[in-house]
Specification:
By secondary structure, this protein is mostly helical. The chain has two domains: 1-105; 107-242, Serine Threonine Protein Phosphatase 5, Tetratricopeptide repeat (Alpha Horseshoe), CATH 1.25.40.10. It has eight helices and two strands, in the order αββααααααα. The protein has helices at 3-102, 120-134, 138-151, 158-171, 175-188, 195-208, 212-225, 230-242; strands at residues 107-111, 114-118. The chain has a two-stranded antiparallel sheet. The longest helix has 100 residues, at 3-102. It starts with a helix and ends with a helix.
Length: 243
């Protein structure tokens, strides 16, 4: 082999060796790239899985919070209903107390055009006596009115009580006592709504007692004292018949 041939062979061998080494380097780099890619994919999958678990945990926490809020809302509604019920019961109790106290407290009443304060017992007893009179039990109503007057001498009902007591006695023909009852009304309340009727009733009693002179005098006093009343008009007719 010539020198030239040996030199060419050496060059060819060096080139082959370099080419082989270059191929080895390229394969190693490719392998490392593939490994790095796989590692990145594994990390990505791991990250996605971790994120999925985190989202699931967060969703579970949200559901727990929703359940707690719903339970608290239900408790608040129950508490509100309980408070409302307690307030209603308190109002009922206070109303009941007020009603019971009111039964023992004086109240304003209006009878025969007169307003005054009266105890519950006064009102009850007067109305009971008047109820007996209206049923036509005049004897029993006399007892009731006399009892009322005895127990309530300062009551605003007194003038009216005397008026109805006088009528009850007139109905039982106790004319003398009836006159006294009507005079008691006039003495206590000459401006009472029933005063003209009381004077006319006195005249009627006097007629029944055959005291015609006294009846005429009473009728004349009625016309003079209460000229605009219906009783005065009736008194004029009576006077015309008594002459």
């Amino acid at each position: 082999m010539t020198l030239y041939s040996r030199l060419a062979a050496a060059l060819l061998l060096g080139w082959a060796t370099c080419s082989a080494q270059a191929g080895l380097f390229e394969d190693e780099e490719a392998r490392r790239a593939i490994l790095d890619l796989r590692s990145s994919q594994e990390e990505a999958r791991s990250s996605r899985e971790e994120m999925r678990r985190s989202l699931l945990d967060l969703q579970n926490q949200i559901e727990v919070l929703r359940a707690d809020l719903a339970r608290m809302h239900g408790q608040n509604e129950q508490l509100a209903r309980s408070v409302s019920e307690l307030q209603r019961q308190q109002k009922d109790v206070m109303q009941g107390v007020d009603d019971r106290l009111r039964k023992f407290e004086p109240s304003k009443v209006s009878v025969d055009g007169r307003e005054f304060m009266a105890e519950p017992a006064e009102k009850r007893d007067f109305e009971a006596a008047l109820g007996i009179f209206r049923k036509g039990d005049f004897a029993a109503s006399q007892v009731a009115f006399l009892d009322f007057l005895k127990r309530n001498p300062q009551s605003g009902y007194v003038p009216s009580a005397y008026f109805w007591l006088g009528n009850a006695r007139y109905a039982t023909r106790d004319y003398k006592e009836a006159v006294q009852n009507f005079r008691s009304l006039l003495a206590q309340a000459p401006d009472h709504l029933r005063a003209p009727e009381a004077v006319l009733s006195i005249a009627n009693c006097q007629v029944e007692l055959k005291d015609l002179r006294g009846a005429r005098k009473t009728l004349e006093e009625l016309v003079k004292a209460y000229p605009q009343s219906e009783a005065a008009a009736a008194a004029k007719d009576r006077l015309a018949r008594l002459k």
